[in-house]
Amino acid sequence: MSNKKPISRKRLDWIDQSKGLAILGIIIFHFFQNYPDRIDLVNILDRNGAKWGYAAVDIFFVIAGFNTSYTLAASIKSGKITSLKINWIEWLRKRIIRLYPNYWLAIILSIILLTVWGTINIKSFQDLIFMGIGVPGYQRFKTLNPGFWFFSVILQAYLITPIIFLICKGKAKNILLLGIVIGTIWKIVCITNTGDPYFFIFLLQSNLITSYIFPLCLGLYWGFIYCDYQKFRRIDWEVSIAAFSIGLVMYGFLVLSQIDFEYMIGFDMLFTPLFLLLFYWVCETYINPKLTFKDFNLFSLMGVYSYQIYLIHQPLLFVALPILGGKIALNSYPRVLLAIIAIAILITLYVFVFIQLDNFLGKLMGKITKKSA
């Protein structure tokens, strides 16, 4: 890595804002996916929102990789660590401490929510144990909260990151190449298993880190690059635009040919780089300077707590939307608008309570692990 520019140690606002935009897009998609009145507008937004939802999830994995390598590269440049001799055990310990309390709290609150207002579909105590461990998101574990797949896959991402660095010897280009190769091979594996629709979807998305290995490695690569230049380079834009253009041509051909296909079959690899750069551009050009008021930015705040929001928002939608659909006595479109406002308020209150409990559990978990260390 070069030493062209000094490293800025302040928090990168565009990272939080990008996550805030991504989680907002996912919530909107899930809202229309679960809204009970299947009017034309809802159907259109549900059907097309799925693609935005997939793209937003990819952004989370790019950023997870980016944060990891950017922090490590900055520490190397500042002399805090030498080469890439990192204490990976300690690195994993900190992330597990951050992940599990949120996840367990989400399980508890999901059970309470569905016990009071919905139906719990946990079939056995064994299923509950597996869910608590965070095994890949088999369908029977998703019945409580479909969002739990994200915990499982992000946990896998953290567990394999040290292995990626070991295999690639900490070289940014090798990491990117590894992501491209494994990502491509995995798409081929998925395509060859289309005979069983459930197994095909299981392999393709929301269960194994192999489905998101490319965005993770892309983020690891770009973390090193951004640490060197404190911006994305012209070549990053050029290659990303070229890949997107290829994907767009292929995408258009399949649509015009009326060939059924899944977004995750390759298009995520071609589109994700440019999507991340566009998120960066929007945040740096419009959100950060124009939508920040006295150091407060809603998208930044949503980004900081995006992991928590992802884990808990879906059960609330399962419970609240059917109730709202029956209570709001208005015409279809005003009812949708009022339901959006009501859900926004409920999610805000729910997340606030969750965060308070989460902060308490996080501190408690930290004290326990320090004593046992």
From TrEMBL:
<protein>
    <submittedName>
        <fullName>Acyltransferase</fullName>
    </submittedName>
</protein>
<feature type="transmembrane region" description="Helical">
    <location>
        <begin position="12"/>
        <end position="32"/>
    </location>
</feature>
<feature type="domain" description="Acyltransferase 3">
    <location>
        <begin position="13"/>
        <end position="350"/>
    </location>
</feature>
<dbReference type="InterPro" id="IPR050879">
    <property type="entry name" value="Acyltransferase_3"/>
</dbReference>
<keyword id="KW-0808">Transferase</keyword>
<feature type="transmembrane region" description="Helical">
    <location>
        <begin position="175"/>
        <end position="194"/>
    </location>
</feature>
<keyword id="KW-0812">Transmembrane</keyword>
<feature type="transmembrane region" description="Helical">
    <location>
        <begin position="239"/>
        <end position="257"/>
    </location>
</feature>
<dbReference type="InterPro" id="IPR002656">
    <property type="entry name" value="Acyl_transf_3_dom"/>
</dbReference>
<dbReference type="Pfam" id="PF01757">
    <property type="entry name" value="Acyl_transf_3"/>
</dbReference>
<keyword id="KW-0012">Acyltransferase</keyword>
<keyword id="KW-1133">Transmembrane helix</keyword>
<feature type="transmembrane region" description="Helical">
    <location>
        <begin position="52"/>
        <end position="73"/>
    </location>
</feature>
<feature type="transmembrane region" description="Helical">
    <location>
        <begin position="336"/>
        <end position="357"/>
    </location>
</feature>
<dbReference type="GO" id="GO:0016020">
    <property type="term" value="C:membrane"/>
</dbReference>
<dbReference type="GO" id="GO:0000271">
    <property type="term" value="P:polysaccharide biosynthetic process"/>
</dbReference>
<keyword id="KW-0472">Membrane</keyword>
<feature type="transmembrane region" description="Helical">
    <location>
        <begin position="148"/>
        <end position="168"/>
    </location>
</feature>
<feature type="transmembrane region" description="Helical">
    <location>
        <begin position="200"/>
        <end position="227"/>
    </location>
</feature>
<feature type="transmembrane region" description="Helical">
    <location>
        <begin position="103"/>
        <end position="122"/>
    </location>
</feature>
<feature type="transmembrane region" description="Helical">
    <location>
        <begin position="304"/>
        <end position="324"/>
    </location>
</feature>
<dbReference type="GO" id="GO:0016747">
    <property type="term" value="F:acyltransferase activity, transferring groups other than amino-acyl groups"/>
</dbReference>
<feature type="transmembrane region" description="Helical">
    <location>
        <begin position="263"/>
        <end position="283"/>
    </location>
</feature>
